[in-house]
Design brief:
This protein folds into two domains: 4-63, lambda repressor-like DNA-binding domains (434 Repressor (Amino-terminal Domain)), CATH 1.10.260; 78-116, no CATH class. The protein has helices spanning 4-14, 19-26, 30-37, 45-55, 59-63, 78-92, 103-116. It has seven helices and no strands. The chain is mainly α and 119 residues long. The mean pLDDT is 85.
Length: 119
């Protein structure tokens, strides 16, 4: 069985937020956040959406439907985001099991190295 409270606590702690800080960000008290984390209350859809935006995760992930973590692209430039999209698309579904990287995959990796080594 999925533990929403544990998922919320893990996301909050990953962001280094206290229950009180999280509550302030979404307009709820520390005790309400505590009740969510202890599975005493379930947040309404509007609050779930706020959590998803705040933690940069999908609603599916937040409520345990999709257990794959989302890639956070917050703070990246548009060029860096485009490269991450290419990376996920190209490497996420490796239909060909051929050894080594294709020329396209090598090009993407070279682009990543160039883009993320800029200062």
């Amino acid at each position: 069985m999925f533990d929403f409270g544990l998922r919320l606590r893990e996301l909050r702690e990953k962001q280094k937020l206290s229950q009180e800080q999280l509550g302030r960000r979404i307009g709820r008290s520390k005790s309400v956040i505590s009740s969510y984390e202890n599975n005493l209350k379930l947040p309404p859809l509007g609050i779930l959406i706020e959590f998803a935006h705040l933690f940069n995760v999908s609603l599916d992930y937040l409520v345990g439907i999709d257990k794959n973590e989302m890639v956070s692209v917050g703070g990246l430039s548009p060029e860096q985001r485009a490269l991450i999209d290419l990376l996920v698309f190209e490497f996420g579904d490796r239909q060909s099991k051929a050894a080594g990287l294709s020329a396209r995959q090598q090009e993407i990796l070279n682009g990543l190295m160039k883009e993320f080594s800029k200062k």
